[in-house]
Amino acid sequence: MLSLCRQSLTRLNRKCLIGHRVVRQSHSEQKIPEKYEKFRTGHMDEAVVPFGSWKEAFNKQQKKYNKQLALSLLFFGGTAIFVYNSGVIDLVLPPPMTNDDKYHFHWMKNLFKFSKQSLKEEKSSSTKAIPDLPKEVPYLIIGGGTASFAAFRSIRANDPKAKVLVISDEDYYPYMRPPLSKELWFSSPDLTKKLTFKQWNGKERTIFLEHEEFYLPLEKLIQSETGGVSVLKNYTVVKLDATDRKVYLDNGEIISYDKCLIATGGTPKNIEPFITSPSDVQKRVILYRNIADFHRLEDISRKAKSITIVGGGFLGSELACALAGRSKLYKTNLIVNQVFPEEGNMGKVLPQYLCEWTTNKVKSEGVNVIPKTSVKDVQLDGNQLALSLSDSNKLKTDYVILAVGLNPNTQLAETSGLEVDDVYGGFRVNAELEARTNLWVAGDASCFYDIKLGRRRVEHHDHAVVSGRLAGENMTGAHKPYWHQSMFWSDLGPQVGYEAIGIVDSSLPTVGVFAKASEKDTPKAAVEKTGEGIRSESDQKAEDVLKTETTELTEAVPRTPLPGDDFGKGIIFYLKNNIVVGIVLWNVFSRMQIARRVINEGKPFEDLNEVAKLFDIHSDE
What CA–CA distance (Å, rounded) separates 190 from 4? Predict the structure, then answer.
């Protein structure tokens, strides 16, 4: 029964469809209520019919992008080449392979060095080749100062036919720096223009260590049968390869060497707030070091109304007395201020009682001394600098001279894989001043091992002379250790001066023996007697004229120095563990060989009465 019903329904449906036309309407043609019209969507019949190959369209678009990329790379590459050639970026070459990761870090950090001055000044780092520059030399010296001069003189003394090339970043042949803060300021302008000065004994002398005719032109150095010394000025070595024995100049040229000495010296320290001060302020700040600085300061001292020296050490105190003395001599009414954080002049070197006496001496020269004070801020106020001091006062001045110490020039260490001492700075060398095989370091930039006093770094003229001379001897095969105790000296004008040797640190215990001074006990009298204004040279001559017998001293009871004491001349012993490690000869001259012998023998505290007799300071009384 159920199947019969299904058949009847099927027949009925067929009859209904016969004779009727079935019309299929599209989605868009269907009528829908108006309220739903906004929800109508497109359908495939309305889609854009694609044409061509999708692969062809993709390739066409990719070619367009490739052209844009190539043009961008070409533009930025050309810009980089232009900027590099213009001197804005200095490319530092990578160092030789080393296992120490820190050298790779320093190289990456210094790969590009930006220079603000490179757009204003023409640098020697142009790619132009240097005419007649030797491609290989037997002896190469990097740096053109006192240590360099002492080294090539020593090399030539031991190897008379030696050919030495000196590379200096200055525009001058090697010269002495001490007169830049001493005798030059007490000489007439006619002499100073020629960089000539009168020593305290009146004898004229140039600051240059040799006359220009002494040096060979570059083109004659290699061909010379008798050897000689040539100086390449205004160029810098940016990298040294100690393994292949090559140096790279800032213009890209390469020089090979057999033996090399680094004598790069140091650069004056800069301190806050001057480091980050505006450019208009920095134009009135001088970091005093070389001939160019002397010429600039001399010109300023004639025109300015006031100059402030920041720093109370050797250089700062010498310059303060020199500028004040020059102002008196030429009646320029220049106001000279001196600001430093110590309690008095040379406060880091001299014991307190002598430091106070020295400060009063500097004041008597006409210097406005401001101790226990530091500069916290600096601003340009009209045509003057306004210094905000730590005591809440303000000091207005036309110019500032920073004399706060020296940083050794060790940039080569970063690009050349050389070791720098973490404590004292400077290239770390052994007792023979050797940093690597066939590579030595001398002068301010060397941190050497003193067989008596341990590892040290010294920044004085005599050390530059002695270490340079020893390095030159070792470059010719001497293999000598550094045992010499170098000295230094400072003059506060022609009437007060001192010489020192060893470790002279005001934090150490001291014992002083003093006597009344006479007219013979002054720097001027010492120069008149020896004929030498550079006292490291007179020190060598003094050994020949020392007395074999000394005057007996009366036994004096030690006492604490009292106000009003006149420290005319005397000997100050610096002690460490009751051993003499340093000596200052105060207005006592031609006795440095005795002081050197005392330190080498390591006299204990109990022997100081006997030791004092050696210096014969009472002989003129």
Answer: 143
